[in-house]
């Protein structure tokens, strides 16, 4: 793999450092700030709304500005926001700082994935996104492991402080790198003939039936995935009587097994085709999550959570490949922004919906709630036209 792809994937590792930390510390925040479940869910909901508002502008920027500048901006926003989080002493200040941090995610993801879809050969798209997601899992795993250490010693805020400095340093490296100084839209459009005619046809292409179905799958699946992940550590602490440190440690193992899952997702997406691979992965997510809710022994609980994490991370490679396959090359950034906008919209609402389910019943009921949405998304996925490599635009 060429150096540019490695640099983008390494940036993904840094951007995901804090991905799960704010939901992993929900039990801690409930205790520290004397919160209810609905109030605690705001730590997931409000930052997701901030990321949501940034998705469409990020697609516009990704098609018009240099990749190095956008990746640098994402690192600076994340690093400075992390420093702010480390100094917060109130719940609302924490929400504001984490929301600021979340803005970095769409800036990175839309630009980075758009560039990967252009650099990778069509037959290697699943493999490339698999590596990209594996390094993201490595980053979120490192963040959670460091959180576990600091929870047991000096406090969770030190996790944000620790990683802020290497993130800012990597941003400077990206800015100075000549390999990523690519203006995507200009490079793409110079290869196209009759650009004005193509431009007029992009709108119906972006709103094709295949894209609409795929966005429906993304939205429905995200309700189940976000609902269960947001309150996973809360379930471990409240329903299974684990300590906050033990619950966070089990939760931290998920992203590490997710490295294997991401690479496996890329492999099976390449071998089976992205639609078939995604169907099997969603089915396995449903089975493993349901089984997780039925066991009580610590070791079985940890094992089944790792199995679920394996499959939940494996789905991103075929999902990203499908997004790339149903969007035109010149507007790939806009295609990914629509994808992340849909995902972000649901991720902003789902924690509060899940919290409402918990308030009306118990934490355990979040599992059948999530599995039901997984199964519905699997059914909708079957209406997606079969993926064919020949229909993809040449890179």
Name the descriptors.
single chain; 395 residues; mainly alpha; Growth Hormone, Chain: A; 20 helices; globular; disordered C terminus
Topology:
Blueprint: H1 3-15, H2 21-24, H3 26-33, H4 37-40, H5 42-62, H6 67-86, H7 91-102, H8 104-119, H9 125-151, H10 157-176, H11 184-190, H12 195-206, H13 209-230, H14 232-238, H15 244-272, H16 274-292, H17 298-314, H18 316-325, H19 332-360, H20 366-381
Helix pairs in contact: 1-6, 1-8, 1-9, 1-10, 5-7, 5-8, 5-19, 6-7, 6-8, 6-10, 8-19, 9-10, 9-15, 9-18, 13-19, 13-20, 14-15, 15-16, 15-17, 15-18, 16-17, 16-18, 16-20
Short description:
The chain has 395 residues and is mostly helical. It contains 20 helices and no strands.
Overview of this protein structure:
- With 395 residues, the chain is mainly alpha-helical.
- It has one domain (3-183, 199-391): Growth Hormone, Chain: A, CATH 1.20.1250.20.
- It has 20 helices and no strands.
- It is globular and about 50 Å long.
- Mean pLDDT is 82; it is low at 185-201 and 388-395.
- How much of the sequence lies in strands comes to under 5%
Could you spell the SSE succession in H and E letters? HHHHHHHHHHHHHHHHHHHH
CATH architecture annotation name = Up-down Bundle
Structural classification:
mainly alpha
> Which whole number gives the mean pLDDT?
82
Rg over CA atoms, rounded to whole Å, is: 20 Å
Kindly report the name of the CATH homologous superfamily: MFS general substrate transporter like domains
- The best one-word shape is globular
Number of strands: 0
Share of helix among residues?
over 70%
Q: Detail the poorly predicted runs.
A: 185-201, 388-395
Number of helices: 20
Euclidean distance between termini CA atoms = 16 Å
Quickly name the level 1 CATH class.
Mainly Alpha
Can you tell me the CATH topology? Growth Hormone, Chain: A
Number of domains: 1
Largest sheet at a glance? none
